[in-house]
């Protein structure tokens, strides 16, 4: 529950005060109007908007405005994560850590969490992502950590047309 609350605050950090500056769907999400958000966000996500993809993944993960579906959540998080969107990388890492919608993999969890930390723009978020990554690292051998770091080092974000 704490992770869900932290995740929601990370995704909607700007809140209602700046919701007007966001695209329609993300503004609706920021003010917790999931019925309106679900009408707008999927089209933005389908057009390759990484923020909308992460928000849609969150909506599927937590059943906000849509039926809860971890596989769909993982799909949308991956779409955004592969573009280098750090919040989606973090959330995808958590799914791998728990095995929700994807096969459980501590190594892939570490890889995505490490990428999220490296791409985080805010120092506070970076520190948080690093703490979660380090907790996952405690489950890995030195060789597995090295392999996960290699995967992250060789990661190239996909550019949307």
Give an overview in words.
With 161 residues, the protein is mostly helical. The chain has a single domain (2-153), classed as Serine Threonine Protein Phosphatase 5, Tetratricopeptide repeat (Alpha Horseshoe), CATH 1.25.40. It is 68% helix and 0% strand. It has helices at residues 2-11, 24-30, 34-46, 50-62, 70-81, 86-98, 106-119, 123-137, 142-153. The model is unreliable at 1-6 and 12-22 (pLDDT under 50).
Topology, pairings included?
Elements: H1 2-11, H2 24-30, H3 34-46, H4 50-62, H5 70-81, H6 86-98, H7 106-119, H8 123-137, H9 142-153
Helix pairs in contact: 1-4, 2-3, 3-4, 4-5, 5-6, 6-7, 7-8, 7-9
Brief descriptors of the model:
single chain; 161 residues; mainly alpha; Serine Threonine Protein Phosphatase 5, Tetratricopeptide repeat; 68% helix; globular; disordered N terminus
What is the tally of helical segments?
A: 9
Task: Based on Cα principal axes, name the global outline.
Answer: globular
> How many DSSP E strands?
0
Any idea what the CATH architecture is?
A: Alpha Horseshoe
Assign the CATH superfamily: Tetratricopeptide repeat domain
Cα-atom radius of gyration: 15 Å
What is the element string, with H for helices and E for strands? HHHHHHHHH
How many domains is the backbone divided into? 1
Largest sheet: none
Proportion of beta-strand residues = under 5%
Helix content: 55-70%
State mean pLDDT (0 to 100 scale). 87
Q: Which spans of ≥5 residues are poorly predicted at pLDDT below 50?
A: 1-6, 12-22
Distance between the termini: 37 Å
CATH topology (level 3) name: Serine Threonine Protein Phosphatase 5, Tetratricopeptide repeat
**CATH class descriptor name:** Mainly Alpha
């Amino acid at each position: 529950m704490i992770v869900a609350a932290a995740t929601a605050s990370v995704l909607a950090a700007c809140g209602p005060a700046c919701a007007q500056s966001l695209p329609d769907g993300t503004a609706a999400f920021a003010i917790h109007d999931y019925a309106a958000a679900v009408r707008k966000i999927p089209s933005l996500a389908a057009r390759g908007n990484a923020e909308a993809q992460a928000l849609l993944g969150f909506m599927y993960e937590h059943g906000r405005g849509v039926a809860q579906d971890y596989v769909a959540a993982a799909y949308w998080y991956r779409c955004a994560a592969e573009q280098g969107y750090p919040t989606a990388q973090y959330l995808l890492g958590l799914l791998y850590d728990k095995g929700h919608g994807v096969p459980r993999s501590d190594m892939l969890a570490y890889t995505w969490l490490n990428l999220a930390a490296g791409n985080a723009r805010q120092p506070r978020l970076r520190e948080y992502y690093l703490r979660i990554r380090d907790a996952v690292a405690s489950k890995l051998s030195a060789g597995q950590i090295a392999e996960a770091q290699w995967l992250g080092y060789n990661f190239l974000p996909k550019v949307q047309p």
